[in-house]
What we know:
homodimer, two-stranded antiparallel ribbon, 5 helices, alpha+beta, DNA-binding
Amino acid sequence: MSYTYDYPRPSVTVDCVIFGLDAQQKVNVLLIQRKNDPFAGQWAMPGGFVDMDEDLETAALRELEEETGVHDLFIEQLFTFGAPDRDPRGRVISVAYYALVNLEHHPIEAASDARRVQWFPVNDVPELAFDHAHIFRVALERLRAKVRYQPIGFELLPPTFTLTQLQNLYENILGIESGLNKRNFRTRILKMGVLQEVGVQEGVAHRPARLYRFDRRKYEELEKSKYEDLIRRGLDFDI
Amino acid sequence: MSYTYDYPRPSVTVDCVIFGLDAQQKVNVLLIQRKNDPFAGQWAMPGGFVDMDEDLETAALRELEEETGVHDLFIEQLFTFGAPDRDPRGRVISVAYYALVNLEHHPIEAASDARRVQWFPVNDVPELAFDHAHIFRVALERLRAKVRYQPIGFELLPPTFTLTQLQNLYENILGIESGLNKRNFRTRILKMGVLQEVGVQEGVAHRPARLYRFDRRKYEELEKSKYEDLIRRGLDFDI
DNA sequence: TCAAAAGTGTTATCATTACACCCATGG
DNA sequence: CCATGGGTGTAATGATAACACTTTTGA
């Protein structure tokens, strides 16, 4: 079966930049190794062509699961990449999505055609096919921008965690090598009031840290009142 | 001439949500009246099909100029809308762009086929074709979010302007009816140090206001140091 | 008793908010 | 001299940043 149109049409694909936080709170990205040309053997973001009757987001989740086994996650639209020469096969416009998940909750499984699938630390990403290096950079920038004003990290830690773990998480996502000020980080986070103390560590060779749990209910209240404040106040720019 | 593909392909369009600030610092949006079905006679965002060898942003600027005469402006990608049923003609995926301009610097001219083109106050937008009401809402939200952390308004005012004009601008973009606190608005804006005093009003029936000019150089320095601070500090969320 | 990591005290400075008040002009 | 906007004083409160210090554990 073939399809005939009066005007030429581009192909439309979706690509997924999935960031995964590992047990050391390091940020990884999920890649697949391409089996076919172009770029056979090279690593790329999971993705593929959009079906005619499916939503873009659905297509992205479908391709992601087909190619990596990863499913049950929230993705967010990142950007649409459409430079005429971005794909050697012809005009291909790609709608990119991204997400940040706890990598251990999302086991990968190589697709049936035995492609390789792997998490790579974001500081050690191999050469990528197409313009995927560019897509990756845009996604990482967006993740870093987002983590600054939304506590997206909290839910990716173990159910209970220490403030040091949380601080590592932020330092790793933001790519800060020098380290945030411990005192101020703690004051700030605790002042938010979205952490519930639930005990202390045991069996560690140093002073045991307090364990916290993320209080989603409190967080949602906070979000709401923050929004109302914004409406009321109007201007916010620190600039 | 016709084109044949092994798999069906969606059409790809671009749509432009152009916000225009008028002399009263009110926010308007640029619409065209459709000549053909579907939705003949209804208002819609300017836009159209992407050519095979042009960039998405180029396509958006081209369609905008063809349909409205508006040109020479910076647009930014907003979102890609791809619900399978958003266009009755079939699968059409639309990459939306948006911009905010001074409406008086961008005169509109009806296209050769005599379509109507018009600015509408954002509070008084007619019924829109396709899912354009949705696109419009998303664009307005984004504009409001952006104006809070970037002084995008300054350049849209007359070359010299009063602080009251600037405050009106912010109140109008943000849709704040109650009014921002005058004292605090002024303190904040002036503290930024990106306004240069250049004289006073003349011939007004009240105390003449000081006139300011936007100092782009200072603003760029500020942006740079703000970015460096962010890198250094790490966390920023007020939450 | 030591290493390792957790956790705290404190202070100066700056930003934010809220109100109320005064000022200069043309008609 | 008054209506109309323009423009200012001030004070309480809270946030931020910086730095050095103390505490608790297992080995």
